[in-house]
């Protein structure tokens, strides 16, 4: 049967091949050498990449895209859906007449020369005998010994540029006894140009360098680096800044001149005045100064820092030699800044979806001021409100309502505010100091009301495009429970651990996070996101009170600050993502989440707002939000029959101190570019650090692998570039609360969960 299918596929494949031609099915290359020390086999991948054209896509001897082309009429003109299928899903036959073996041989010879094999012999033969109307081209190459570098000589003159080039010789990419390689020669020219650009050679270009190669030395070469005779004189001298000027109100089409008297700040001319921007703040992002040699790094750093302030639409540095040909080695630099709109007010009506399963309409009113104190400070004020109901696959939980209102204000100052003068001059990005003050009021009907206040003070900066540091040395959070219902108080009385988590909570500490992200680098086949974080509370205060009270902290007799018990814990989080871009359309995305929170001293449980939950549209999608864990704990098995509060209360129980979660998702286009699909699998659970008698099976143990929940499913994404609507249907494959880690028996794979969300899950 397989032979018959292959035969039929072969006949169909050649249906559209013209008379006298052949279907080209590919080529191969064999490299040999009479010298044993030459690794001829290693050259074959390099030469194989030069073989053109690519044959038709083949799978198990069949060519599906060519078959579609032939089935839809082949070379005949078609219209309508048949033409669309033929052109979009099919492909015409690749013919032997298109292979041009002589051109391929020339490309192979060029590649061998570029790698130091200067006297190769190439031949080819066409095999048309093995398959009817199909042909393959066989190439063969014979190479000698690879040429190596015997001597490297840089320009020998005493002019400025020759001296500067010779000074770079210790860092040269070219080394004696290394194989001759054209790509390395090209990279060496780029390296020299980059170094010279940092030493003031503003007009220099790598094209002004030329190599003279002597290859008459018995498989050795001497390389002479020389300056072209046609290099202009202005490219051969270094340039210094004579005058740096800043224009903070520049508009496209404006002319530059001294029509207005500038503000003289240090050695800079600052236009027009300081009524809008303080000169000191803007110049904190400027890294070019009068008298300095031109540096491309400082030039680009200045543009990046000014744009990173967020208050300018455009930033440009315009350079002008002091005379028409610039032979005196002096430059004027005009920094031209076009302002962005200073203030904005925006209102958004949105669908709120939270990790605890609550969803509903919400409104956010945001005010933004990009220059609040004339120092490019960003002021953000947000007013939020939402009315939510809990949505889950469990009818006992559905229908619970919650109202939330709040306000917060943030100030981002574009510099490091500290007792020390810290500028982080090596970074291409603007460091920031961040202040945040917020308030939230939550009303969970049938349960409680809660007020919470928070304040943060910290810093953020990026050393590189892929690396960001976030340090918040001051974090204060205070939560107070109000008006608990009798039913809620009864449930808390039966759950001491949860009651402590809901006690009035005072968190005084700090948090720290590092983000490494290569997703912004286009063209990478492998992309990574790694983000470890630390969160501490009560450490220094705990030491202070231990000395003051002459006793260690105890959850039963906690140390207090103004009558309020301090939360003490240490928490570590790690999120890693890996994206394998199989093609530009097919992506395998994976994520691993880990977290560990250790309460100590005053606390034997993490504050409720710091505990982990699992499940939901951005977690394990086969289980509703906060319907898993901790561990083997199953709240439904312990509920009182007929007690609706107890049944609906269970999601408060399903939090933990430890989290482990993994996700994998294969993403592919359906109707590109707007409709995409995905297959996914999720696994994970949460656990407790300390035993809780009211949540049996919740403590972490060595058997944690057998306590993982697993779900899988498929989904669609409507991607319109500026937002993504995601629909995922997931089924549980393994539920740790079922005997022996089984799964629910209702339905094909158990009760499916439909997730509707905005954005990708990771």
TrEMBL record:
Pfam families: Omp85 (PF01103)
Xref: InterPro entries: Bac_surfAg_D15, D15-like
Keywords: Cell outer membrane, Membrane, Signal, Transmembrane
Gene Ontology cellular component terms for the protein in this record: outer membrane
Keyword hit for Membrane: yes
Chief place of localization: membrane
Compartments reported by the entry: Membrane
Name of the featured protein: Bacterial surface antigen (D15) domain-containing protein
């Amino acid at each position: 049967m397989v032979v018959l299918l292959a035969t039929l596929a072969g006949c169909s494949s050649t249906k559209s091949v013209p008379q006298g031609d052949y279907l080209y099915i590919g080529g191969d290359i064999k490299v040999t050498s009479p010298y044993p020390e030459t690794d001829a086999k290693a050259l074959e991948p390099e030469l194989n990449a030069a073989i053109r054209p690519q044959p038709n896509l083949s799978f198990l001897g069949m060519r599906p895209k060519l078959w579609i082309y032939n089935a839809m009429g082949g070379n005949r003109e078609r219209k309508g859906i048949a033409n669309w299928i033929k052109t979009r899903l099919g492909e015409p036959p690749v013919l032997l007449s298109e292979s041009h073996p002589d051109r391929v041989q020339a490309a192979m010879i060029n590649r061998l020369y570029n790698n130091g094999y200067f006297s190769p012999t190439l031949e080819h033969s066409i095999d048309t005998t093995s398959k009817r109307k199909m042909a393959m081209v066989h190439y063969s190459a014979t190479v000698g010994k690879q040429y190596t570098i015997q001597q490297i000589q840089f320009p020998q003159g005493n002019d400025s540029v020759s001296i500067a080039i010779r000074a770079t010789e210790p860092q040269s990419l070219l080394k004696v006894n290394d194989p001759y390689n054209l790509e390395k020669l090209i990279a060496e020219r780029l390296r020299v140009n980059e170094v010279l650009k940092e030493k003031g050679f503003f007009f220099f270009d790598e094209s002004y360098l030329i190599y003279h190669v002597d290859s008459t030395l018995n498989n050795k070469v001497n390389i002479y680096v020389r300056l072209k005779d046609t290099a202009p004189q202005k490219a051969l001298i270094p340039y210094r800044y004579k005058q740096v000027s800043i224009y903070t109100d520049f508009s496209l089409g404006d002319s530059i001149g001294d029509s207005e008297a500038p503000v003289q700040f240090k050695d800079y001319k600052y236009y027009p005045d300081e009524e809008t921007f303080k000169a000191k703040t803007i110049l904190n992002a400027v890294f070019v100064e009068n008298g300095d040699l031109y540096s491309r790094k400082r030039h680009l750093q200045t543009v990046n820092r000014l744009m990173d302030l967020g208050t300018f639409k455009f930033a440009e540095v315009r350079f002008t030699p002091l005379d028409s040909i610039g032979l005196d080695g002096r430059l004027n630099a005009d920094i031209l800044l076009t302002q962005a709109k200073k203030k904005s007010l925006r209102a958004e009506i949105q669908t709120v979806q939270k990790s605890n399963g609550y969803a509903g309409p919400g409104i956010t009113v945001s005010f933004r001021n990009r220059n609040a104190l004339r120092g490019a400070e960003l002021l953000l004020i947000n007013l939020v409100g939402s009315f939510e109901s809990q949505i889950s696959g469990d009818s006992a939980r559905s229908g619970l309502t919650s109202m939330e209102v709040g306000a917060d204000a943030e100030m981002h100052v574009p510099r490091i505010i500290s007792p020390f003068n810290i500028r982080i001059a090596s970074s291409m990005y603007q460091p920031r100091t961040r202040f945040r003050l917020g308030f939230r009021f939550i009303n969970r009907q049938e349960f409680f009301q809660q007020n919470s206040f928070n304040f943060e003070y910290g810093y953020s900066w990026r050393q590189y495009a892929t690396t960001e540091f976030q340090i918040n040395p001051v974090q204060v959070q205070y939560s107070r429970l109000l008006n608990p219902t009798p039913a809620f108080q009864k449930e808390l009385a039966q759950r001491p651990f949860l009651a402590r988590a809901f006690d009035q909570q005072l968190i005084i500490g700090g948090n720290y996070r590092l983000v490494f992200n290569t997703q912004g680098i286009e063209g990478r086949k492998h992309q990574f996101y790694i983000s470890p974080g630390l969160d501490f509370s009560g450490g220094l205060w705990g030491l202070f009170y231990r000395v003051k009270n002459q006793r260690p902290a105890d959850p039963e007799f906690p140390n207090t600050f103004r009558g309020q018990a301090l939360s003490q814990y240490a928490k570590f989080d790690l999120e890693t993502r890996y994206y394998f871009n199989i093609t530009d359309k097919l992506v395998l995305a994976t994520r691993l989440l880990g977290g560990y929170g250790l309460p100590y001293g005053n606390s034997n449980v993490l504050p409720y707002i710091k505990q982990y939950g699992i499940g939901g549209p951005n977690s394990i999608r086969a289980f509703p939000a906060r319907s898993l864990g901790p561990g083997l704990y199953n709240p439904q098995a312990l509920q009182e029959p007929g007690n609706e509060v107890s049944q609906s209360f269970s999601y408060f129980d399903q939090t933990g101190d430890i989290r482990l979660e993994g996700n994998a998702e294969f993403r592919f286009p359906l109707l590109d570019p707007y409709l995409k699909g995905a297959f996914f699998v999720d696994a994970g659970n949460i656990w407790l650090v300390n035993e809780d008698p009211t949540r049996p099976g919740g403590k972490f143990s060595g058997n944690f692998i057998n306590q993982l929940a697993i779900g899988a499913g498929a989904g669609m994404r409507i991607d319109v570039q500026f937002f993504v609507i995601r629909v995922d249907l997931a089924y549980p494959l393994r539920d740790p609360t079922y005997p022996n880690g089984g799964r629910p028996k209702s339905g094909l794979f158990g009760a499916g969960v439909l997730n509707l969300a905005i954005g990708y899950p990771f």
